Amino acid sequence: MSELAFASATDLAAKIRNKEIGCEELLRYYLDRVDRYNGELNALVVDIRDRALAQAKAADTAVANGDEVGPLHGVPMTVKESYNVKGTPTTWGNVAWKDNIANDDAESVKKLKAAGVIVFGKTNVPLMLADFQSYNDVYGTTNNPYNHEHIPGGSSGGSAAALAAGLTGIETGSDIGGSIRNPAHFCGVFGHKPTWSLLWMRGHAPPGDMRGSPDISVIGPLARSADDLETAIKTMAGPDEIMARGYQLNLPTLSEKGLKGLKVAVWRDDEIAPVDAEVRQRVENVASAFKDAGAEVNEDARPDFSVGHAHDTYRHLLQATMSARMPDDEYQSLKEYVAKLDPDDDSDTARTLRAQVSSFKEWKQADELRSHLRWKWHAFFEEYDLLLTPMMPTAAFKHDHRPFGERTILVNNEERPYFEQVFWAGLTGVSYLPSTVIPTGLNGAGLPIGVQIVGPEYGDLIAIGAAQLLEAEGFRFTPPPDYVD
Same domain for 224 and 323? Predict the structure, then answer.
């Protein structure tokens, strides 16, 4: 029965439409796997199976009656804990918010339900969605299904772990510093960070925050197949109710020629954030697949800006946005601390702290620099269709719950700063670019490695389209052996 556990949501929905399996039967199958496997994995942290079973029965009735159904009808789904699902806690891993019960579903959850999914639970996150690992004092630690001693990524770590372990049909996460993409990389699944504001974020927010589209941050899908990413994006994307008065969605797609004739740039490593040799090799493997399919591949092409300047701009805007989540008393204390810093202190720590308490003028100056970067990327994508990059410097590393300042990662047997890892996410994230992570198989230690495919703004379906074609060429999800029945 493992073929059900690790099937794509697209295939599961087809089986339901063809009456090969019932909605309730499929949901009970996944719930049984949750009961057997989630204890040690700890990916699913909120369970609403009773209401889901009632919805599954209704979904079966719709199929039996021959009703018109959505593209994901009957597919069991979990969502990241940070999304509002009516009647469930939305804590972001913060003990202070453990009694924050959602009064309504997030807008994207409503759209997914309208497409037919049956939401039966929520998955784990790090505290305030601010780590490459997924642990907190509300729900505990989530493990990587390929090796429980290793991390699943973060902040959508529970999402990726549940998918990889075959505990759910499809997932949706969020991303400001790689929080969809690094868990996809670490857990061997597909993930897509959309163009900024393409998906309405209302209902993915701290308590009391309406959240239109906070800077850089996006929501988006994770799945075991690139086909599912396309369906999910088409389901969730589109203007909010105000924008819809004057805007319509019209995303371009990959041409019928497929990979042949594409112009693909390759950025396989960088001295600012070096990657392991095995990660670099996977980027080269994907580049070779493009080349073999008839694409034109260029390993030297770069947008016309200093990569250091781009990274500094990203870090400034990222820190300013993340600090907006702080409680008022903590933020005020931070301002007072920063005011006492030596004006000549230009260390990474000092720059980070100053960015966290940026004045509006300082933020706007960084935003203007970002505008220039966006246009440099636009010019780049006038010449190239796609860009390939690493997603993270290494495969999943072991859990490390020490204070941030004490953590490092080992890259090519050299200790590197922990948060240096955010570089590959920020390179494209700061400029609002869509990015799809594809799996490239397991390494010698049995851990997955992913590669990032980047497209131009609103080129989401182009990047996903390339992922679909590469999946057909063998870059596909590999189930973790310990979860195969």
Answer: no
Q: What is the mean pLDDT of residues 133-142?
A: 98
Sign, CA dihedral 81-82-85-87, equals: positive
Q: How many whole angstroms from its chain centre is CA 177? A: 9
Question: For 297-354, how does the pLDDT look when each residue is reduced to its tens digit (9 = 90+)?
Answer: 999 999 999 999 999 999 999 999 999 888 899 999 999 999 999 999 999 899 999 9
- Domain annotation covers residue 29: yes
Average pLDDT over residues 351-359: 96
In a domain, 313, yes or no: yes
Sign of CA dihedral 157, 473, 282, 459: negative
Has residue 462 been placed in a domain? yes
We report the CATH number of the domain holding residue 392 as 3.90.1300.10
* Structural domain contains residue 290: no
Q: In the sheet where 76-80 sits, what is the strand order? A: 44-47, 118-123, 76-80
Q: How many domains does the chain have?
A: 2
Report d(CA 389, CA 418) in Å as an integer: 19
Taken in order 437, 442, 443, 445, is the CA torsion positive or negative?
A: positive
SS3 call for 482: helix
Model confidence over 387-420: pLDDT tens digits?
999 999 999 999 999 999 999 999 999 999 999 9
Task: Locate 411 and state its tokens.
Answer: 């890259």
Dihedrals phi, psi of 298, to nearest 5 degrees: -125, 120
How far is C-alpha 464 from the geometric centre of its chain's CA atoms?
14
Range of the structural domain that residue 326 is part of: 307-371
Average pLDDT of the segment spanning 249-257: 90
